[in-house]
Specification:
The complex is a heterodimer of chains A (about 325) and B (about 170). By secondary structure, chain A is mainly α. In chain A, about 70% of the residues lie in helices and about 0% in strands. Chain B has about 170 residues and is α+β, with helices and mostly antiparallel strands. Chain B has a domain at about 30-140: Alpha-Beta Plaits (2-Layer Sandwich), CATH 3.30.70. The chains are: A mainly alpha (about 325), B alpha+beta (about 170).
Chain lengths: ~325, ~170
């Protein structure tokens, strides 16, 4: 078998695995939310209700795919694509094991940051092209949120970069052989976690969507599979940020030898996915100006302080 | 900050609590006997229909879902020739049961009334009439009331004296 064929197989395999686990995540989230609210969640279709996403997908496929006559049509169609595309692309730099990865990039972390920043275009464009007040409000909030997290997210990762001397995610994982970075870089980990929640617009920072005030925020006007793309994009985003946290702070595929590396990676990622769902089950949403103030007045100085201390230690 | 972590911990512990969900088709909540569900027509202890066709239930019904036609048998006993309840209209308010002077119409704790066709929600008299006495046992309207029917003249009902002859002076 040639080298290229193997690469293509890995790429297709990763794509399918991510999309199917995102579908499974829909079921997992509903089930876990149920458990944490003293309910049972969907448990009818298949064993433990595991085929629920299948029913959801069939339903959403047969829905009318309606484009509002007042919408700006071309942008309206492109916007959900951007959200899926950027999030799937940022998966390409994540090393699942030392052999399974799409692209080993020297600028892996920067690529990830770039792709997540591009993702906010989908929010802004979707809200703007919908030509709807609520959507536009959601889009503006999305933009303001992006201005918040973008600042400290990049800086919170610089501690990891300084300790491993590389932007390459594989090198970062290998540098954690002795000690996972979340112990020396605990502030960086917490700040990146908060930034990660904002990146994928999950509760408690689902400010662009805020169902309770903005209908569904920037995707109020979307229906059918275009809505489905935003939906799946959100769940892929959860997996992506969890995988990123695991890679950067929890030693990626590293772990005791009785389990294969890929299983270690999956288990660690699953823990963070469950953590994101727990966040949704327990925390209320702050106002968007509160998030802005929190980001700029608290988290940004903290990140800079963290970098300063780490720099001093590394130089000493 | 601490309260946020505590909130998350409390939410997590709920995973191990007893679930409130009742998995409906498999397990059901026991409904109290006076629950206002499907309407029935009951019979008296001797097996005769209790309904005397007085139309009070139809008059009391706020959504006009009851329709009936009163008639009389050869003994002078009144009964409905047809009795029809449209359950797709019924709001299960129980006013018909309150209005009924003979305990004939009663609401039962049965709520599983789903049908695939709307017409099947219209219940005729044979669907409504049950064999038993429902919630009120031992009551027979014609044995209590002073109305004369075949086999029972004036003054023969329970707790009733014989009629006074107004034409005589003797006590």
């Amino acid at each position: 078998m040639s080298e290229t064929l193997l690469t293509i197989l890995i790429v297709v395999g990763i794509l399918l695995a991510i999309l199917s686990s995102a579908a499974l995540l829909i079921w997992l989230e509903r089930r876990m939310l149920g458990f944490w609210q003293d309910r049972l969640g969907p448990n009818r279709i298949g064993p433990f209700g595991i085929f629920q996403p299948l029913a959801d997908v069939v339903k959403i496929f047969f829905k009318e795919d309606w484009i509002p006559p007042f919408a700006s049509k071309r942008i309206f169609v492109i916007a959900p694509g951007i959200s899926m595309f950027t999030i799937l692309l940022s998966f390409s730099v994540i090393p699942f094991t030392s052999t399974i990865h799409v692209a080993e990039m020297n600028i892996g972390i920067l690529f990830f940051l770039a792709m997540t920043s591009l993702g906010s275009y989908s929010v802004v464009l979707a809200g703007w092209s919908s030509n709807n007040k609520y959507s536009l409000l959601g889009a503006m909030r999305g933009a303001s949120q992006m201005l918040t997290y973008e600042v400290f997210m990049g800086l919170s990762l610089m501690g990891v970069v300084m300790m491993s001397n590389s932007f390459n995610l594989e090198t970062v994982v290998k540098a954690q052989q002795g000690l996972w970075f979340f112990i020396p870089q605990f502030p960086g980990f917490v700040i990146f976690l908060i930034a990660g929640i904002s990146v994928i617009h999950r509760l408690p920072f689902d400010i662009p969507e805020s169902e309770s005030e903005l209908v569904a925020g920037y995707h109020s006007e979307y229906s059918g599979m275009k809505f489905g793309m935003f939906f799946v994009g959100e769940y892929v985003g959860i997996i992506m940020v969890s995988a990123m946290i695991v890679t950067l702070f929890f030693g990626g595929w590293l772990g005791p030898h009785f389990l294969p590396p890929f299983i270690w990676f999956s288990i660690k990622t699953l823990v963070f996915v469950l953590f994101f769902i727990l966040l949704r089950a327990s925390l209320p949403r702050p106002r968007y100006d509160q998030l802005l103030a929190y980001g700029w007045k608290v988290l940004l100085p903290l990140t800079l302080l963290n970098l300063l201390i780490l720099g001093a230690i590394l130089l000493a | 900050m601490f309260s946020i972590l505590r909130t998350m911990w409390v939410a997590f512990t709920h995973m191990f609590r007893k679930k409130l969900t009742v998995e409906y088709p498999e397990e059901k909540i026991p409904l109290p006997p006076r629950y206002r569900g499907r309407i029935i027509l009951s019979r008296d202890p001797d097996g005769g229909e209790r309904c005397v066709g007085c139309y009070l239930c139809a008059a009391a019904c706020p959504v006009d879902c009851i329709s009936l036609q009163a008639t009389e048998d050869e003994n002078g006993r009144r009964y409905p020739s047809f009795f029809r309840i449209n359950f797709s209209r019924c709001i299960f308010c129980g006013l018909c049961e309150e209005a009924c002077p003979t305990y004939a119409i009663q609401l039962t704790p049965d709520v599983e009334l789903s049908e695939y066709k709307r017409n099947n929600m219209v219940y005729e008299k044979e669907d409504l009439l049950i064999q038993g006495q429902g919630k009120y046992h031992g009551y027979n309207y014609y044995k209590v009331s002073g109305m004369a029917i075949g086999g029972k003249g004036k003054g023969e009902a329970q707790h009733e004296d014989a009629p006074i002859d107004l034409k005589t002076l003797l006590p």
